[in-house]
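User: quick one, fold this
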Amino acid sequence: MTESKYIVVGNSSDDPFAIDVAFSMGQSEDIADQISLKHFANSEFCPRFISDEQDFNQIGNKLQGKSVIIVSTSSLVMSRQSLTMRTLMIARAAKENGASEVILVEPDLYYSAQDRGPRNELGETDFARDQKDLKKFDGQLFTAKLYAEMLKLSGVDRVLTVHNHSHSVQQMFDDVFGGKFYNIIPYDIYVDYLLNSNIVKYGDDGEGLALCAPDKGARDFVKEMCVRLKLNKAKFLLLDKERTSEREVSITMHPESESSLEDVRGHDIVLFDDMVRTGSTVVQTCKLLKEIKPGKTVFALTHFYASEEGRIKMAHPAIDEILTLNTIPTVLNRDIQGRLRKKMVVLKIEKWLALNLCRILELPQLNTNDSFYSIDMSSKNLRWKHKIWLSEQLKALNQR
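Assistant:
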């Protein structure tokens, strides 16, 4: 990374996620030495890029010719509304002090849930909207569009996020930012972990392994996972769900599924989804899968919203293990994990994000000799002892 051109900051100066992304990109200065995130006595936020107090020649131009990368992640101590306002003000401060470009890295893109409005022109969906779908948003606003327009107005030029599920959000952000919206899908992380860990067991060509999509929305992602794993005998299972109420769903086999439930009896099954909120769908799905007596059920997801309700539901024995990323870093907190720490593995993606940033910005590629992600696993996890044993074996091999 060229330090004179790119500056990485966060919307919190002690955010470990932002600090790790900056470090991975080669930034030696701490975020707290790049920007002061202060408040006035009346509680109003006022970010200030730190400059030499004796330099009167570059007033308002300290960032001239530089690009500012804002890394924005959720926090236990600040609401998303507060974090959003901080991001907007940091972006504007960067531009008003000469920055040539502002890039927002927000792994879990805020306000994506409200991805369309109550009229057909409010959101470009990949399905025909009926009256029932329009009524669902009656009286509400198309929040995702407002957020995109506010980011653009504040001075953000590019947005990078991870595994956004909404076609409408993707299309709209791409329009607002003139093609400079990057939705990075973490195929390579999941593939690497499934192939190089003992989370599931299967034969040399994928015998005994099944990948499951809980609905048509996840089908393309899971099909691509099947291709990238290069395990020709792994099976693909497509389910269907119908939401009967806010927290109740009905799970059935989708008629387009390549395999039946009976076909995957005794298999280790990995159920993929982009996110989890209440846990109702995944628990119901895994209950259905348990009826065919699989070897193991693993729930793999990108965005883990660790609500108390979700944690309670996912403690159900129908889910044997949970594999997630730290796009929402609070998932690393053992108190947040609660009882789920016994079956949860978190893959930390900061270096992987830095690698993708370097690719997008056409910077020299980082050294990838070591892993492009790191693993966080509680000692309560049943695979912890095997992980220690494997580490010792690798160390012994390297010493020979």
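User: anything notable?
Assistant: The chain has twelve helices and 15 strands.
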